[in-house]
């Protein structure tokens, strides 16, 4: 082999351009750190065995509502939004994957699953009888938490927000379907599988337990009402779901106040709900036609997603997703 050939081979290995050489050095630096990091541990990501590095997140970022972490993996990892990670005998869900400006590795924010949700699919319980892992958060703090019944009485009307991995079974969970959460029954009033590709976001409203329909011991609602039609096909009794349109911006800068409105004169809102896993916003004002929210002036909230849901007095639901952005 000639000297020129040897030189060309060495230069190709290091990088033919200044960018390639800098990128090669950066990758070697990351690999050295990754191999020796104290928090590097073996995990399963969607069933695939590999190593990952975990980093703590400041609990002030989400008002101590969950023990969030950052996870760092190599570029060849199968990690993505919606992935399920088995780490330290617990199940973790990938919520946000960062788009690295220098793509030497993958980094994502994860939340610990805090419940398993079961429902009937045909004559079987979802998840092969075990249900599906979910991240569940009480949304009553972001709403009035009550609804009217008659002219003067008020009943508790708690809300829950739930995220599950987007797959064939979780997409089967329908609007108006009932599920158990923590010994109580909730009804699905809204679901969104567009805003966070890989995860489905459900907004749930508290319902009453019915011992003639619900299997309290198994934690499966409507266990005894899963009848089939004459063709042997499950009858889910689908109903037409009406929607009301919420107008307003698709993006909101940190530190700003955003107003969203119902323009349809046929509807008045009885309840506004802000689905917000990061505690990014606070409600400034609300009435039957509009809601104003203030976005926290915190750069760590950039990239967060909030969903505004309106429920009218007639039970019609509307929703709008807003992404938190930088002011620059």
Short summary of the structure?
The chain has 328 residues and is mainly β.
Walkthrough of the structure:
By secondary structure, the chain is mainly beta. The protein is built from 2 helices and 24 strands. The chain has helices at residues 3-14, 18-36, and strands at residues 40-45, 48-56, 69-73, 84-87, 90-97, 106-112, 115-117, 120-121, 124-125, 132-138, 146-149, 153-156, 159-165, 178-181, 184-192, 199-207, 246-247, 251-253, 257-262, 269-275, 281-286, 290-295, 305-312, 317-325. The strands form 6 sheets. The protein has a 6-stranded antiparallel beta barrel. Strand 21 (281-286) and strand 22 form a beta hairpin. The longest helix is centred in the N-terminal third of the chain and has 19 residues, at 18-36. The radius of gyration is 24 Å and the shape is globular. The termini are far apart.
Helix content: under 10%
What's the Cα radius of gyration? Answer: 24 Å
Helix and strand sequence: HHEEEEEEEEEEEEEEEEEEEEEEEE
Mean pLDDT: 84
As an assembly, this protein is: single chain
Low-confidence stretches: 144-155, 228-240
Looking across the biggest beta sheet, what order are the strands in? Answer: 1-2-3-6-5-4
By helix and strand content, what is the structural category?
A: mainly beta
Straight-line N-to-C gap: 55 Å
Question: How many β-strand runs?
Answer: 24
Biggest β-sheet: count, sense, barrel? 6 strands, antiparallel, barrel
Q: Strand portion, in percent?
A: 35-45%
Number of helices: 2
